[in-house]
Amino acid sequence: MPGPRISIITPTYQQASTIRETIESVLGQDHADLEYWVLDGGSTDGTVEILRSYESDPRFHWVSEPDQGQSDAINKGLARCTGEIFNWLNSDDYLEPGALRRVAEAFEKNPGLDIVSGRTAEFRGDPPEIFNRIQLQLRATAEQSIPVGVFCQPSTFWRTEIVRALGGVDTSLHYVMDWNLWVRYLARYGQENVRLIDDLLAHYRHHAAAKTSTGSSKFYDEAKGVFHNLHLSLHAPEAFLLPEVETSPSWKRHRFELGPEFDRERYLGSYAERMVRTYRKNDPALARAWLGRTWGYKPGVTPWRVKMWLRLLLK
């Protein structure tokens, strides 16, 4: 049996120097039922010639035309996908050999899963030097996982129908569209149908031109906007709102759809704890203010909150 069809999308623009490695890593997978789309934004650096060289492979499809950026390209690819399982792989990253087979096996063993997520190796240089291995961060509940603020996109695979039900990625976002998709999923569905596996599935390239290197402040600004929209949807107290993000020309009001099991009080308590951790070293007074807010929310008095209160009293 070939297993579920897996659709992979690569959004790209002017990445001729790395895209061949990306394509080879996908087409070289040993999973039988694979569909691969490359959505190019109209590159002029030789990318199109590389794409044409793979046209004889029936699994491979490509489009080259202007788009509105990475998020737009991902959604255009999503609309074309026919697979049951979905992910995108950027054109400077690559898959580990055998990754898709292991993903398919995990979904087949657990038909009720929405998401399977493995490990991603972060690397730099040529030859590649792996300096870190990361994985999707789950806490005890979805409400506690959201404030972690981290998503491991290259090695996280989705049921295609779930991504479509969420409306795809937010095209107003260019840096945290993947994490925003994750937050929307957790708020609506919880994390009971998410499975972590220990397999290395993908390799993420660090280089000077990468968005993580050139736009770190923009990641932070967009993440603040996501939290602000979520807190507006929760009718959170004023202290939890971040109205300064509304002054950005790129900010858009988006309503989060909350599932019936989403626990507002637990989430707000977890977010307040995140703020304590954020400010406790550089702004103890602000950290104390946030710690004071935690008491009104689940899980109430905890050893961590008591310990942190004692530490902050000494500062």
Present the secondary structure layout.
Blueprint: E1 6-12, H1 19-27, E2 34-40, H2 47-52, E3 60-64, H3 70-80, E4 85-88, E5 94-95, H4 99-109, E6 115-124, E7 129-135, H5 142-145, E8 156-159, H6 160-165, H7 177-189, E9 194-205, H8 211-214, H9 216-233, H10 264-279, H11 284-294, H12 303-313
Parallel strand pairs: 1-2, 1-4, 2-3, 6-9
Antiparallel strand pairs: 4-8, 5-9, 6-7, 6-8
Helix pairs in contact: 10-11, 11-12
Please, could you describe this protein's structure?
It contains twelve helices and nine strands. By secondary structure, it is α/β, with parallel strands linked by helices. Strands 1, 2, 3, 4, 5, 6, 7, 8 and 9 form a nine-stranded mixed β-sheet that branches. Helix 2 (47-52) links the parallel strand 2 and strand 3 (60-64). The chain is globular. The model has no long low-confidence stretch (mean pLDDT 95).
What can be said about the biggest beta sheet? 9 strands, mixed
Helix content: 25-40%
What would you call the shape? Answer: globular
% residues in beta strands: 15-25%
Task: Give the tags.
18% strand; 315 residues; 12 helices; alpha/beta; globular
Short description:
With 315 residues, the protein is of the alpha/beta class.
